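Researcher: For the record, we're logging two predictions in this thread. I'll number them. Prediction 1 follows.
Model: Prediction 1, sequence and structure:
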Amino acid sequence: MAQVFDRSSNALARASLVLTGLIVIALGVALDQLQRSPWVTKQGQRPDQPVPFSHKHHVEGLGLQCQYCHTSVEKSAYAGIPPTKTCINCHSQIWTNAQLLEPVRQSWATGESIQWIRVHDLPDYVYFNHEIHVNKGIGCASCHGRVDQMPLMYQESTLQMEWCLNCHRNPAVNLRPTSEIYNMAWEGPSSQKPVWCTATVNTNGTNVPTAQGVSCVTKDPNDNNPQLAQMEKPNAGPIVNDGVAATPGASVGTTSSDMPVVALPASYQKFTSQMDLGKYLTAQYHIRTANELSSCEVCHR
């Protein structure tokens, strides 16, 4: 019986299997890079808006705070898009005839909202709450980038699941004092620029709300600082009008109990790295563990 296959068929079969495997691997790598590319994530893209609003001009140039336009960022899941009235508060007085602002004037005259294009647009199945992030020490720049340096707003990060999980698995790298939430230039502590923090308490010794639970300064509180010294001065009892201490129960002058006192503990901790500060804030802000933060129900409701 004649041989059906040539002797080279075995070599061809092996080569075809290897080639098929290489094609599958290359296709997988290509698809993986595609779904991470700006074409899919829209990272770095600047959509055409009805009005070319410049965050750099308004934030860095004019000094507007984020909350002036995004009024619900501290108390709602959504930061909120400002209504036309917010724009008119200023532009009824300045740039009143600028062609650039014609859509704003038209919206104000007709009552129809400006059709802004959302830059950071998460899928409908993802639940993100601005309130909890802001009040737990995540700054605006951590997600949105240096908005104060953006003439036109664009998406700084990928907003993909792995990007969220990287933070949820180790939130300490991004945590900051709540007093620095809106500070776009915040870089965290370093050996050259340390930060001192302490847990704040009320005058009656009870803890304050979590959002104000930590007080941090960038100057050594042990250095001669009259302001901190005054804030940390303990309740010394009644004081007469000329500043001389009176005996307890004295009815002359005013007492220190009549004046609001901010009690700051004298013990500050010095931090020279973001990781050390982040671990400290994780405990102070009562942030859940990495396993709990990485569970599916945190983002998918």
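Researcher: Logged. Prediction 2.
Model: Prediction 2, sequence and structure:
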Amino acid sequence: MDKAKKLILNLKLFFSYRELLLNLARREITQRYKQSILGYFWVILNPLFQLLVLSFVFSTIFRVSSFSVPYIVFLMVGLLPWNFFSSSLSSASNALVGNSSLITKIYFPREILVYGTILAKIVDFLYSCLVLIPFFLYFHIILNWQVLWVIPIFIIQLIFTAALSLLISSFNLFYRDIQYLLNLIISLWFYLTPVLYPVEQFPEKYRFIFSLNPMSVIINAYRQTVLGGGPPNLNSLGIAALTSIIFFLVAYLIFKKSEGQFADYV
């Protein structure tokens, strides 16, 4: 009961610092492409080039089948959410280390630093989704009202991403090897998530891996909704939602418990 009250108080305190959150997100967005000629247009160009290269390699050379839709569209619907997830984790790993001056000088809820990086990545994600429009028009892919399932799916992904980001940012402050280990983990995780291939093409005896991987459920849910024109697997999505919420609460409590030591390690 005491933990529940403490959690509510922390949420109220966090809400009072919402302007700081927005300013941190705005700062990250503006500084990233400062003195860049193309500026924020890189948010669209980067996933576009990545998409074209991966599509050529896996559809032409390795001949991965995407069944009812063109492979480049199949890839795109999985790749964009994955890029949001991986870039959020990478940025969050340095959210505390890179803001040492703020941590040592003034008090505010430290999780704002993590959420600020994620908020900036949400903006990137929304802009990168513009890549979908010309391909959907070219391949005559029609969306129906079921596409609204994208909203709860994204919320579930956001909760899971925030939970993992809180843990990574705090652990990296204490053990700087985490940021290097993270690159390896993300690379392995990418290939164990059905971003490049349909689940059906993965050996059946190893498919249990996907049930243990929340990102597999989320990526498949996006495809079932956007490309399949129907609702996602509600049982799998419900489990993913419950797991993400529990994981977030645990990660948040661990983060807040170690928060008092942050100033000693920056």
